[in-house]
Amino acid sequence: MSETLMKTVIDCSTGVEEVLPLTPEEVAQFEADAAAAEARYLEREAAAAAKAAAKAAAHEKLAALGLSADEIAAL
Amino acid sequence: MAFELIKKTTAPTASASLSFTNIPQTYKELKIFATLRGTSGTNRGTANISFNSDTNTSNYKGYEWYYEDGTMGGEFNNSGSSASRNLGAMPGPSGDTNQFGAFEVIIPNYANTTNYKVAYTSIASPKNASTGYSYWDRGTTWLSNSAINSITFGVNSGDLISQSTIWLYGLK
Known about the structure:
The structure holds two protein chains of two kinds.
Chain A: E1 6-11, E2 17-21, H1 24-64, H2 69-74
Antiparallel strand pairs in A: 1-2
Chain B: E1 3-10, E2 17-21, E3 29-36, E4 44-51, E5 60-68, E6 71-77, E7 86-91, E8 101-108, E9 117-126, E10 133-142, E11 151-155, E12 165-171
Antiparallel strand pairs in B: 1-12, 2-11, 3-8, 3-12, 4-7, 4-11, 5-6, 5-10, 8-9, 9-10
C-alpha cells in the first residue's frame, strides 16, 4: 500500500485522468473495509478448517467400520 | 447493436481505487473488462465496486458462487454485510509473477431512474502454482433508483498495482 492512499479518476466527458489523494472520509471508509475484510477472511479460514477436521473425523470413523479408502471416496 | 469503447485506463501508479466519472447516459448497458492485481492478501486480494461514490454497504446486496482451492462455495451478502460491495478474487503479492485476474462486469439499463441496478460479474483469477485458480460469479444489486454516472473499482485492503487496466464499453 502506498504511504498516502491514492485514487485514479477518469472523467469520461473530458478524458482527463487524475491521480489524487483519498479524502479523509475515503480513508476512513477504506480502513473500515480493510478491517471487515480481515475479520471475514479469518471467519472463512476458521470455517474451512472446521469443515476439514469434521471430514477427516468422518473418514476415520468410516474406516473403523471397515470401509476401504476407495469405498469412502465413492460416498 | 454494437459496443463502443467509452474509456480505457491503466493505473499509472498503485491506487486504492480506479474510478470512471461522468459516464454518458446514452447507452443501453455498460460492459467492463478489467485486469486487476492487488498489493495485499498474500496470494489473493478482493476487489469491490461502488456506484456514484456510494460506499454504504447497506445500499448493496449480492450473491456469489465460487470455486477456490478445490472447494465450491457460495454465499448471500445481505445489505449491510461487509461483503455486499465485493466483486471477487484477484491475484495478490504472492501470486505468480505477471498474472492478473480477468474481470467482466455487465450492467444493463444503468441509466434508468425507476429501478434498482444489478451488475453481473464473472472472474477468473490465477493465484499461484500451488493454489491454482479462483473462479467467481456474482450478482450485485445497488439499492438505488439513481442513474449510474460513476463507477469505482476498489480493493478491500492495499492497492491495485500499477498496470491494472479497465476498459469501459457502452452498448448502443
